[in-house]
Amino acid sequence: MKLTRKVTAMALASMMVFSMAACGGGDTPAETTTAAAAETTAAAAETTAAATEAAEKDAETTAEAAGGAGGNIGVCIYKFDDAFMTTYRNALQEILEGKGYTVTVMDGKNDQAEQNNQINNFIAQEVDALIINPVMTSAADQIIATVKDAGIPTVLINREPTADQMSAYDKLVYVGCDARQSGTMQGELILDTPNKGDINGDGKVSYIMIQGDPENVDAQYRTEFSVKALTDAGMEVEELDLQRGDWDRNKGQEIAQNDLAKFGNDIEVIFCNNDDMAIGALQAIQAAGRKVNEDIYLVGVDALDAALNEVVNGNMTGTVLNDANGQAAGAVEAMEALLGGKTYAAGEQSIYVDYVKVTPENAADFQ
Ligand code: GAL
User: Fold this and answer.
1) pLDDT tens column, 55-69
2) From the CA of 247, how far away is ligand 1's center (Å)?
3) pLDDT of residue 63
């Protein structure tokens, strides 16, 4: 882009010189005057071209400083085979490419060693910025040390490290959501039902919890805060089972199927840390002849299209919007701020996008 503009400006200047010279001829005073005038004009043209070029260069510098078009961005996703992160990465790529960046997105295949190689390759290619969805939150220290060493502005997404870990590098920021909020909203969805989750009226809410990958704060906080919302509201609770489903639909189906066989009608609520596992649990609920919102409640998080349909159809009690578009836009904005030279002070390195409670009343707004 820069090169093309420069060539165009120079070609324009020499073309003007050429056409002016072509107007001249012999050495008569008139011709000399004309030739001199032509030279002056040509010089002026060169000056104009040079000024244009300088102005363009300034514009480019400003654009570069603001992270404008033309930068190379490396994106690392923990694994492509994740329903929510697929929506997220598509949104991210679309926004970045729409702004003129060259984007390379890598699949970490849920393997931290593989992702470390991808980060090192991006650094060797001298990308302008990195956007990383870590495979393991526990690898954050190492990732942060690596990008700091390379001096690459970096936005972490989806898996939040601690404030302390991030404070090691001031050209690093996390964009995501506060997972406590989504857990609380799941609890509120149950509290909003006519019997507050106590379907059999025995004075307690008996639930199973299908957890995401417990290494991840999203899984930890959603598990904790969904139940906390119930107990904070004065409800008694009974945990029949808690198992990790690793954000995966098939695992959600298996866990729900086994628990429905084991605990039968004692299960009043199935909390799933995400929608993909909830869709799996719904398959098990339907296979067991149970009916959501009549003899069992089911909630998830993410507001995947499939889950929104089930909320509308009454096959899920509700879900929570995990705003992939908002987070992707926030990540790009933070990246551009970093490219523009912004640094982030310790304790101010997490930027949150709000979750939204989704019920049959508002589900259509998100479809
Ligand atoms: C969560 C999301 C899950 C899964 C997970 C991956 O925020 O709700 O569906 O994508 O991130 O870390």
Assistant:
1) 344 333 333 444 445
2) 7
3) 39
pTM greater than the 0.85 cutoff: no
* Centroid of ligand 1 to alpha carbon of 312 (angstroms): 22
Could you tell me the distance, in angstroms and rounded to a whole number, from the CA of residue 218 to the centre of ligand 1? 7
CB 175 within 8 A of CB 334: yes
Decide whether any atom of ligand 1 lies within 6 Å of the 327 Cβ: no
Ligand 1, closest atom to CA 275?
9
Residue 170 clears pLDDT 60, i.e. is over it: yes
Mean pLDDT computed over 179-203? 98
Tell me the CA–centroid distance for residue 38 and ligand 1, in Å. 68
pLDDT score recorded for residue 70: 73
Residue whose C-alpha is closest to residue 213's, from 84, 319, 352: 84
In whole angstroms, what is the distance from residue 273 CA to residue 327 CA?
A: 19
Helix locations, the chain, DSSP H: 2-23, 29-65, 83-98, 112-124, 140-150, 163-166, 179-191, 217-232, 249-263, 275-287, 305-313, 324-339
Give CA separation, 117 vs 54, 107, 112, 114, 137, in Å: 40, 11, 9, 5, 17
Strand (E) or helix (H) holding 103 = strand 102-107
**188 C-beta closer than 6 A to ligand 1:** no
**pLDDT single digits (tens) 252-296:** 999 999 999 999 999 999 999 999 999 999 999 999 999 999 999
Per-residue pLDDT at 39 exceeds 50: no
Tell me if 322 CB under 6 Å of ligand 1.
yes
Interval between CA 274 and ligand 1 midpoint (Å): 7
